């Protein structure tokens, strides 16, 4: 009887504790939440102040000079624009981030995600269109330089929610959704310092491409050409590794080999970074076919005229020359057997203008089409000597070493003591 009474007392005490938890003061202090009946997620529209939208109605002529000013918050003392607070699983955040994580949807919608106030400010300075901004603390929002922006949606999100969707180990606490820029709309923040056009072929590692963009911008190259097959330069890992280089050097993406000549000056010299070739000790170089003297129309064995180059237009309605010889396997087989002269990277006297530097993927090596391009423009191979039986360097390191050797030759000055 005593045992059953003790068990009953324990059960009664546990029920009493649970009931106290259910009716504690913390529950009574919670604010009521108003639920809105919305037919679907697609019809959700952000709540936005009319005054806030009108402040962004500026002209693009004053992008560099005009900065939008907001009143100072009395509690925090920070100057922040009006924003809306979102709940934990608000579809206006989760649905957008889900779309941005999917590459096909991201490219279809032409959106990119940028994290961190420094990159966001660089993107705004470069004229990119900011559409949505997510932040966790007003301190990060106050440091954003709002210039010409139209219909910007600003939402405050819990930091743990941002951290859950962040691509970084340490979430910076602010994310910006931008419209994907084009070469024509992007305003480059710096001027080129050396006359170098960099061709990246088959660079599939985001970290490598981001480092190449960063180092090329730091060296002051004219532009970067990415052939079809390279990783998307606006992918989040590439953006992070680029450290703002995307906004300081023009990048042209998805270039077909048949159109590569449209982006290279006629009087250019092509240099291929290749560590697999042997260095030529002598200064004598063999003669190559000069394709500039070959007519565009050739007569075949049957007496018919073959047109190998023709002119078409691109998406911007600009004339583009197409060289179909870059797609002919029989034509490319000739260049697989050609052994271009290879020189030490520091033993070449680089020209003072129209330099083209080619770098390929580490695993696939030099493409036969790159050899053909070098033959068309009287190019050579350059090599960086390695020790300890190492076969190759990382692509970004190899590009950086050669670029700064070119920069040294073109800008070096001697001080007499």
Helix content: 25-40%
Output the radius of gyration: 30 Å
Helical stretch tally? 13
* Share in β-strands: 15-25%
How would you characterize the overall build of this protein?
With 417 residues, this protein is of the alpha/beta class. 30% of the residues lie in helices and 18% in strands. The chain is built from 13 helices and 16 strands. It has helices at 2-22, 25-29, 50-55, 91-101, 103-109, 117-125, 138-142, 159-165, 206-219, 236-242, 329-337, 368-376, 395-411; strands spanning 84-85, 111-115, 130-135, 153-156, 174-179, 196-201, 223-227, 251-255, 269-273, 297-299, 305-307, 309-313, 319-323, 342-344, 355-360, 380-383. The strands form four sheets. Strands 8-7-6-15-9-16-14 form a seven-stranded parallel beta sheet, with helices on both faces. It has a five-stranded mixed beta sheet with strand order 1-4-3-5-2. A two-stranded antiparallel ribbon has the order 10-11. The model is unreliable at 15-66, 282-299 and 305-311 (pLDDT under 50). It comes from Argiope bruennichi (Wasp spider). InterPro entries: Alpha/beta_knot_MTases (IPR029028), MRM3-like_sub_bind (IPR053888), Ribosomal_eL30-like_sf (IPR029064), rRNA_Methyltransferase (IPR051259), SpoU_MeTrfase (IPR001537), tRNA_m1G_MTases_N (IPR029026). This is rRNA methyltransferase 3 like protein. Residues 196-278 form the tRNA/rRNA methyltransferase SpoU type domain. One of its GO terms (molecular function) is RNA binding.
């Amino acid at each position: 009887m005593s045992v059953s009474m003790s068990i009953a007392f324990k059960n009664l005490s546990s029920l009493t504790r649970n009931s106290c938890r259910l009716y504690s003061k913390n529950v009574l202090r919670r604010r009521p939440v108003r639920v809105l009946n919305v037919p679907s997620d697609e019809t959700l529209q952000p709540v936005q102040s009319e005054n806030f939208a009108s402040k962004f109605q500026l002209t693009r002529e004053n992008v560099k000079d005009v900065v939008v000013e907001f009143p100072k918050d009395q509690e925090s003392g920070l100057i922040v624009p009006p924003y809306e607070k979102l709940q934990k699983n608000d579809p206006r955040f989760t649905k957008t981030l889900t779309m941005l994580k999917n590459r096909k949807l991201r490219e279809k919608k032409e959106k990119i995600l940028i994290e961190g106030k420094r990159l966001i400010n660089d993107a705004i300075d470069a004229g990119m269109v900011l559409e949505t901004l997510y932040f966790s603390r007003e301190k990060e929002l106050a440091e954003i330089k709002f210039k010409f922006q139209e219909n910007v949606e600003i939402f405050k999100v819990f930091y743990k929610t941002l951290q859950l969707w962040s691509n970084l180990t340490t979430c910076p606490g602010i994310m910006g959704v931008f419209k994907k820029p084009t070469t024509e709309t992007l305003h480059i923040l710096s001027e080129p310092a050396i006359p170098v056009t960099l061709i990246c072929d088959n660079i599939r590692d985001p970290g490598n491409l981001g480092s190449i963009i960063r180092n090329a911008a730091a060296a002051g190259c004219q532009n970067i050409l990415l052939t079809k097959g390279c990783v998307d330069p606006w992918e989040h890992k590439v953006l992070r590794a680029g450290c703002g280089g995307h906004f300081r050097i023009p990048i042209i993406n998805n270039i077909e080999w048949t159109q590569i000549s449209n982006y290279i000056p006629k009087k250019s010299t092509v240099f291929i970074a290749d560590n697999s070739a042997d260095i030529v000790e002598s200064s004598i170089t063999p003669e190559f076919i000069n394709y500039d003297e070959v007519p565009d129309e050739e007569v075949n064995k049957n007496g018919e005229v073959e047109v190998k180059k023709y002119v078409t237009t691109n998406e911007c309605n600009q004339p583009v020359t197409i060289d179909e010889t870059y797609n002919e396997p029989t034509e490319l087989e000739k260049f697989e057997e050609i052994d271009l002269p290879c020189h030490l990277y520091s033993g070449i006297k680089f020209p003072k203008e129209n330099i083209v530097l080619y770098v390929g993927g580490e695993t696939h090596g030099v493409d036969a089409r790159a050899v053909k391009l070098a033959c068309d423009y009287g190019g050579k191979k350059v090599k960086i000597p390695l020790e300890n039986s190492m076969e190759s360097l990382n692509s970004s390191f190899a590009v950086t070493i050669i670029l700064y050797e070119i920069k040294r030759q073109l800008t070096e000055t001697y001080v007499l003591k």
